[in-house]
Amino acid sequence: MSKTQIIYLLYLISFLSVSAFSQKKPNILFILTDDQSQRDVGAYGNSLLSTPHMDRIINEGMKFENAFTSTAMCVPSRSSLLTGLHPMRHGAHPNHAKITPGTRSVAHYLAEAGYKVGLIGKTHIKPIDSFGFHYVNRLRDYAWDSKLTRQEMKKAMDTLSLDGNPFALFICIANPHVPWPGEWRGDPNDITLPSYLYDNDSTRLAVSRYYAHVEFADTKVGEAISVAEELGFYEDMVVFFSSDHGAEVIHGKYTLYDAGINVPLAVKWAGKVKPGSISAALVQFVDVTPTLIELVGGRPIDSLDGQSFLNIMTAEGTDTYDYIYATSSKDGKKTDYPIKAIRSKRYKYILNPMYYKTFTSWITDASLGDKWPGYGRHYAYWLSWISASISDPHAAQLVKNYIHRPMEEFYDLAND
User: Fold this and answer.
1) The whole model's pTM is what?
2) Strand locations in 37-174, DSSP E?
3) Which of 36, 49, 107, 381 would you label with 177, given CA atoms 20 to 30 Å apart?
4) Mean pLDDT to the nearest integer, 392-404
């Protein structure tokens, strides 16, 4: 064989290798629910909840036990997930705020790797044009406006896959965000309430209605899986499941306690991620974008706050951090109470710089039911706590624990 023939053969082998590699880039499906604490998933140990579709993704891949969002409010949390930046870096640290002009998102980074990147369902990112997604059907932000149907999911996957290039689709389900108009199939008396919630009929009813909407969200997860299977994508897809932050209950959303920031996170990837595997590694929402960049073969972005956990997914690594960080600032006039938190696997420190103020949130607004019927029914349990606190010292203490915080809080998570 001549030298020219050898060079040509090597070139051909190189070309075929590159072509084969590019064809192996997987499609990505990221399913995000809204306001769902980690503990409120069947596969995370809640035996009362029926979440077979969420459980399927978790059981087919890796379950992360120590996954945390940067803050327990919708816009800053979603913005961190999609930019790889903490709230103070991307600028949308108050809820409903806009990211800083020029901030890039995961859609931009994946597009540079040859992906078409779409988002369907709840957006709640501002301004949505700055994020660079292909929006198959723009929907309004809130749960009662959502038209996220199976047909829309199919339309999104069909549209993104038309040119044959790999695609990434974020399906953002608007449940179990309030209001919770439906009734749960189970008995509210069977629910085990955490000790920081006042145990009365009103609290149990509210939590049971939240459970009903967790299960409704699970049906939407099932529709997403079904569409991906029908179109022949699911088996080879990288499928993520998570929620933007915890439930809108006392000490959940709007706070930096674990009920607010510890989220479900799972990833399924056939042949790469071991089914039924569990990771105790500390991971953060800001890590998702760097992980996706590495997963598709992109170059690391040094300016991002997060780190890729791809090596943890593929069992080549066990830990990324010793500590994770979270912040909270404000949600209009409802919540204007800065909080900072640092957490390891064992300990958690919370700083409340304006501890001398009374903490308020949408939950404590007694007039909300007059403005938006449906909300009033949801938040009635807080009013029942206020009423009970007049004669019940335990109720009075639980009310105080929510609206008055010390400057510093420190927890040994193994015992506290």
Assistant:
1) 0.92
2) 62-68, 116-121, 134-138, 167-172
3) 107
4) 97
